[in-house]
Amino acid sequence: MPEYLSPDIFVEEGQSNRHTIERVSASVAAFFGIAERGPVGIPVLITSFAQFKRVFGGYIPNSYLAYAVDGFFKKVKGRCYVVRVVHYSDITDATTATCATSATTLNDRAVTPAPTLGVKAISPGKWGDDISIKIIPATTAPANHFRLKVYFKNVFVEPHDDLSMNPASENFAPDRVNGKSEYIVLEDLGSATVAPDNRPSEGTYPITGGEDGLTGIGDVDYAGSQAARTGVFAFDPVDEINILSCPGITTQTVQNALCTYSEMRQDLFVILDPPVGMNVTEIKEYVQDTAAFNCKYAALYYPNIKILDPNSRKERIVAPSGQLSGIYAKTDVVHGVHKAPAGIEDGAFVDVLGLEYPLDKGQRDTLYPARINPIVKKRGVGVVAWGNRTLSALSDWRSINVRRLFLNVVESIAEGTEWAVFKPNNIDLWKDLTTTITLFLKDYWREGAFFDGGTGNWRDAFYVKCDGELNTQAIIDQYKVVTEIGIAPTKAAEFVIFRITQWDGGRLIEETGGGA
Predict the structure, then answer these.
(1) pLDDT for the residue numbered 4
(2) Does one domain contain both 237 and 272?
(3) Which of 165, 186, 206 is the last residue of a domain?
(4) Is the same domain home to 187 and 294?
(5) What range defines the domain where residue 221 resides?
(6) pLDDT of residue 10
(7) DSSP letters along 201-239, please?
(8) Quick check: is 5 in a domain?
(9) Structural domain tally of the chain?
(10) Is 459:466 a contact under the CB 8 Å cutoff?
């Protein structure tokens, strides 16, 4: 504390000892699949469909990915991560991707020309073969510099003027172009020719050799390898995603792999698409018997939707998971994660022409008990999501909004109480955790996310327990602190209980509630 030696007015800035928990976002989506271009196996943050097209290209016949991302942004101004999938000759080795990048080598202006500048497309794929480069005199200092023009499909798209091959120059070509161009990457090949003849020769040069890496692509390329971070495991480094889909990839192997991934992470929810061409009887058999889904972190919708294809201007069947991800995200933003992402107001699709298989009430009554969420067309409204079921057989986890509410609560508390690690594990810490978590959960209760039985008392809606009964000497000796939380998320549910254990090596989340 400062020492005051004479009268005056003093201001001290103190740090509050009160801890608060910030609510994590519940509306960040993730999509992966085949793309025309873009980085392979790397999650890229996308904030608009225009950005998606710049990075990953447009609509292509053999993929639903672009349609899904477009559908997401039609519903919400949000964020999503996108991963491009290709075939690997060895899924456990990320370096065995079978795609290839278009490239060419430009020679210098010496009497005996030598390689001076490597040019390649910014990402792998046959798309790069549509790029060409034109080298012409620079606008200024033409005796020492050069101008590089980029063409895509014979259309001029990028100018790069007054470039130099001198690595010490502020106009050094790779430094000026790389990271700024949306089409190419340059490499200095270290020509020994004396400047300025080490500049690339004037002329027009195509770049070639691109491969999409799709020959032989199959389920394993989507299911991936955790060690190599291929397939769905490419999302491992991204903590903030909480809605995941693989648009239009509907094999039982891939869809069960997504369920397994969600159960492993315990911080995201998977939206599954129905296989194309299945009628009501077939989709019920697929869900209950063929794939035999039983996952509290996933939901499946039926049927697929019809849109006007922006490329062909004809009707096309596409997977609904893109717009559904947007419906989830928008509902979260407008109402909160505790609101079901369904119904006439919150479950509405946009720009949908119809359904692959229109459903009547009898068919909906067949699907819903089988844990399949119907997509229906309502007169005067349009196409809407008309279900709120997960793929779980457990009654406590059969509602999508309840499951996602708990994901949001648990993730927020787990991240917001990391300050407890390395604190003395005693009654003061237990009281601090109890108070901090209680204050945080009261906000959900005030919003109507928890049910108090109509008493108006938060104690009837949730409880927080962190005491010596949970934190025995054996737990303390392991440098762990355990907190138990019980929540009544809906009128029909009893308290659903989970425990969060924090220690210096990580954290463990255990759900001890959830009836059959």
Answers:
(1) 47
(2) yes
(3) 206
(4) no
(5) 28-92+215-334+342-387
(6) 44
(7) PSEEEE-B--B---TT--HHHHH--TTTT-GGGGGTT--
(8) no
(9) 3
(10) no
Task: State the CATH number of the domain containing residue 308.
Answer: 3.40.50.11780
What lies within 8 Å, CB to CB, of 251 at 6+ separation is 219
Q: Do 378 and 449 share a domain, yes or no?
A: no
Listed as ranges, residues in the chain with pLDDT below 70 are 1-18, 491-496, 504-506, 512-516
Number of separate helices (H) and strands (E) present in the chain: 12, 22
Reported pTM: 0.91
Q: Which amino acid is at 128?
A: G
CA distances from 88 to 41, 93, 210, 212, 224 (A): 11, 8, 16, 12, 10
* CB-based contact 270:241 (threshold 8 Å): no
Please give the pLDDT value at position 500: 76
CB-based contact 207:194 (threshold 8 Å):
no
Digit-coded pLDDT (tens) for 380-430: 999 999 999 999 998 889 999 999 999 999 999 989 988 888 888 899 999
Query: Does residue 197 share a domain with residue 130?
Result: yes
Would you tell me how many other CB atoms lie within 10 Å of the CB of residue 358? 12
**Of 401, 265, 391, 390, nearest to 332 (Cα)?**
401
Using CA atoms, how far apart are residues 183 and 189, in angstroms rounded to an integer? 19
- pLDDT attached to residue 17: 54
Could you say which of 177, 206, 235 is where a domain stops?
A: 206
Q: Which residues pair with 503 in a beta bridge?
A: 480, 506
Q: Which tokens sit at 422?
A: 């390395």
Judge whether 215 and 87 are in contact, CB under 8 Å. yes
Give 485: exposed, middle or buried? Use CB within 10 Å, 0-12, 13-18, 19+.
buried
What gap in Å lies between CA 420 and CA 480, rounded to an integer? 10
Three-state DSSP class for residue 184: strand
